[in-house]
Design a protein that fits this description.
Blueprint lengths: L3 E6 L4 H12 L3 E7 L11 H5 L11 H7 L2 E4 L3 H14 L3 E3 L6 H10 L4 E4 L5 H16 L6 E8 L9 H13 L4 H4 E2 L14 E7 L6 E7 L4 E7 L4 H14 L5 E3 L1 H5 L2
Parallel strand pairs: 1-2, 1-3, 3-4, 4-5, 5-11, 6-8, 7-8
Antiparallel strand pairs: 6-9, 9-10
């Protein structure tokens, strides 16, 4: 059986290391290389030695070499790095799985442009639980109208997470907006500190906490005058994201050009 060759962007990052270990332990996959930024002090060293794994590849700062050696690249890095990787992917026609959060409008536009020539999976959260939650939230929003139920989203992550609200929280807010057939950007409220007005009907509010080593908790609250519905998901470790990303990587290599979500990958 031919193994799927997977390369990893930012392979010594928090998610990168977990992805690398999972790929290395999967008999159906082959780790084809990993790269980091030029300033990483481990450039040129054995990745196997760095992470105490039985692999011979050297850490490189040349993504082109890893893209050429791979059937698919998994990218959990930064918006700036993802943009550079997308350009290489487009040039070499290498599919990508993108789990980077905090994407800018520029990055999103580039994803759309590159997807015209290669297949891409882009998702802020690759767990089956969260993707099921997105469906539940959208369905609930259809039935709980904005005049009777206020929608508020609360999320908690570890103190190392940079972007806020999380990509998953934003996806949940977008699910509320889809369910109510409204424009998310017109309804989102990220900051009330300078807002001296009462809450408007239809607002989609966000509250964020960053502390400790919490992997991720998301709750969508629908609050009415007489009752409250809360839909939640809690992550205990990164393995759900790792497993989802690998599933997406195996799935995307046979697909036509386009942008795909984890719902497409999971068939939900």
């Amino acid at each position: 059986m031919t193994k799927t060759k997977i390369g990893i962007a930012g392979c010594l990052g928090r998610m990168g290391k977990e992805l690398l270990k999972a790929v290395n332990n999967n008999p159906n996959l082959q780790f084809s290389g990993g790269f980091e930024i030029k300033s990483n002090p481990n450039i040129g060293k054995s990745i196997g030695t760095i992470l105490d794994l039985d692999i011979s590849e050297l850490l490189t700062d040349n993504p082109h070499d890893v893209f050429k050696a791979s059937q698919v690249i998994i990218d959990f890095t930064t918006p700036e790095s993802t943009e550079k990787n997308l350009l290489i992917a487009s040039d070499l026609k290498t599919p990508m799985v993108i789990g980077t959060t905090g994407l800018t409008r520029k990055t999103k536009d580039l994803i759309k442009e590159v997807s015209l020539s290669i297949p891409l999976v882009q998702s802020y959260n690759m767990s089956i639980g969260v993707n099921l939650l997105l469906n539940l939230v959208e369905d609930a929003a259809k039935k709980l109208n904005e005049d009777e139920y206020d929608a508020e989203i609360f999320e908690i992550h570890h103190k190392h997470k940079i972007d806020a609200p999380s990509g998953t929280a934003i996806s949940l807010g977008e699910a509320v907006a889809r369910g109510r057939s409204v424009n998310f950007d017109d309804k989102k409220i990220f900051d009330r500190t300078n807002n001296k007005l009462a809450r408007k009907a239809g607002d989609i509010g966000f509250a964020v906490l960053r502390a400790g080593e919490i992997q991720g908790e998301h709750t969508v609250n629908f609050l009415g005058n007489h009752d409250q519905l809360s839909l939640s998901h809690k992550t205990s470790n990164r393995s759900i994201f790792v497993n989802g990303a690998i599933k997406a990587a195996e799935w995307i290599i046979s697909k036509k050009s386009g942008i795909y979500s984890m719902k497409d990958v999971l068939g939900i």
